[in-house]
Amino acid sequence: MSNLFTISDAADKIGVSVDTIRRWEKKGLIKSVRSELNHRLFSIDEITRIHDKVSGSDTDENNYRIIKANKPSKYTAIDLFAGAGGTALGLENAGLQHVLLNEFDKHAAATLRQNRPKWNVSDEDVHEVDFTQWRNKVDVVEGGFPCQSFSYAGKGRGFEDTRGTLFHEFARAVKEVQPKIAIGENVRGLLTHDEGRTLKTMVKILQDLGYKVAYKVMRSQYLDVPQKRERLVIIAVRNDLKTPILFPKERDYTISIKEAIGDRPQSEGQQYSERKHEIMKLVPPGGYWRDLSDELQREYMKASYFHTGGKTGMARRLSWDEPSLTLTCNPAQKQTERCHPEETRPLNVREYARIQTFPDEWQFSGSTSAQYKQIGNAVPVNLGYYMGLAAITMLNGKTHDDLIEMEPIEPVLDESVQELEQPALIPLLDF
Q1: Is 147 labeled as catalytic in the residue annotation?
Q2: Does an H or E element contain 298, and which?
Q3: Catalytically annotated residue among 129, 147, 232, 420
Q4: Which domains does the chain have, with CATH numbers?
């Protein structure tokens, strides 16, 4: 605790205002922990790092890298809803060896085959895949089951009640394969969807299948990704394994956009219309619609000008010295603009891929819009690495990199998920 200070002491020590530290924390550039007296405490090293970054005094430092283990492990994995391969490549970089990847989208499946001809890629409808051939032969089943309508019916709220959902197919794979570890991944909003009942149902089903379960929101910007992207990760460990459920500890630094794309990688990309270019050119780095004149705000935002909330992404230009905002499937969407920090244009495809920590040699199939969609939907490769590293650590009791600490998360107790309210139809997850 010697390196931790209250916000006022930290401000005095670094020579910045308390409001500056509050702003950095709100932006997700630094973290705080709570003391026994519930006071927020900050790491001086972490605050010094971000202070140097935003002031430009660490211009020679570049922490951007795609993390890889020195050698593969003996453990195997099945990757479902694989998309363009963000998670799959991250798991491989951690040391896991894939025996099967399933992805229904033809462009994404082509991307997987193009970049990893050795992978066993199936583009079959996941509902039709028979996983029984892998029973007791695979160590990890991973799946970022897409957001969709989720309903449960009947008093059991069990496995059979989830039929028709993609979570059911993930759970079916776990049931048929019986892996030592299962990893599910989704948006943070799953935590509170239908007042938490959706997540409780998922946890109970995995428990019923013979697993102890824990979950945590993993924040990409603290896990070697130059992007503020949060994912809810569910880890299930088979009951016969005597290991705590482990998640990687967040690092004490972030990676800026400049570190990732400061060399301006060239590729195809979207372009603004002439008028939009004129307007966006007036927005400074890190700025958005409020930096425009009232007249231009009204012209650009139209009806949104009169709405309250949900407008911070409009006319948004990114900042060189911060991680990117969460990438979407289109860098020029009006509500979630992702304009280059310096040039007046949307981020191009290669910049998108860099920010998601795909290597430059990873090519994407399909049209430019299809490529943006694949990258925007992906789990960052380095986040996938940390997920894989956690799995390998639980399987063999140690990591490839002793510098990366793991923290145990207590499993959810059975009693906390058994008493669910009356059956209900849960509406579409809106993310």
Answers
A1: yes
A2: helix 294-301
A3: 147
A4: 4-55 (1.10.1660.10), 76-253+380-426 (3.40.50.150), 260-377 (3.90.120)
